[in-house]
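Students often ask why we bother predicting the structure of a whole assembly rather than each chain alone. The short answer is interfaces. A chain on its own may look different once its partners are present, and contacts between molecules only exist in the joint model. In this exercise we take two input lines together and write out one structure for the complete complex. Read the inputs first and try to guess which parts will touch.
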Amino acid sequence: MKPLVIAGRKLKSRLFIGTGKFPSPEIMAKSLEESGAEIVTVALRRVDFNSPDPTLNAIDFDRYIVLPNTSGARDAEEALRLARLARAASGINWIKLEVTPDPVYLMPDPVETLKAAELLVKEGFVVLPYIHADPVLAKRLEDAGCATVMPLAAPIGSARGIKTEEFIRIIIEQSNIPVVVDAGLGLPSHAARAIEMGADAVLVNTAIACADNPVRMAGAFKKAVKSAIEAIEAGPIEEQEKASASSPLTGFLD
Amino acid sequence: MMLIINGEKREFKQKIKSISQLLKALKVKSDFVAVELNGRVVFREDFKSTEVKEGDNLEIVSFVGGG
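Now the answer. The structure tokens for the assembled complex follow.
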């Protein structure tokens, strides 16, 4: 399998995992391990001095590429502030850029995302923007120097699968940077579909973290993504309008 | 002394001289913590040398689980 290269880093795994909403840090750590993921996302929040979030201690920063996000940002200014804080906290200059002013569907704001991306690239960040499946925006972000684009399949946490398929297809066709399908994937088959369509990777959080058995679900996603990559590399046949018999058609028992 | 930390006023009996001292007083490990002092990011290597004054506004953030 060809490695995926993002900002010069070679990655074997095409499955990125989000670390939110797991029932416990231990289950999260086991799920990360089971998933085979190399990139894991984290968020940045005010420290709660009375009960600090234990998630952080369960993530092995030497083992995983930790990708901080700017979740909670409502505009470019807030996203920049979060990105700078994340870099100061960790020394990591990779940032998953999320600007979601709409609290109901958490749709990313394209104008603010582009504005923030341009500034973050200038400040030396490796920018992975979360976007709607908008092929024009994806190109604009590529031109701005982003490392990937991360179009959404469906609203975050909705488990609805790839509702934006036709547009993700165009993004994949036109993109010269890796395309990571993010948000809304609910089942391993959704992740496999994204890879079979030609996406370079997928990011999954809720579908694993909120499953009855997150560790098993992490393994199921890993296998689905691996299967889909093997299928793509094996060269799938083209879709046809009509039947094409797989048994000889020489006549009845001839 | 009084400091505003993460949007809340906090009184400290002892005098806090630096950001390092403040983190100690709050029992926060400085790994993976970022601090903003009056709106400006303070880098980790400057925690010891950065003075904190009465009424300063600080944001102390760190990583949590997230997608």
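Check your guess against this: The domain at 4-234 of chain A is CATH 3.20.20.70 (TIM Barrel).
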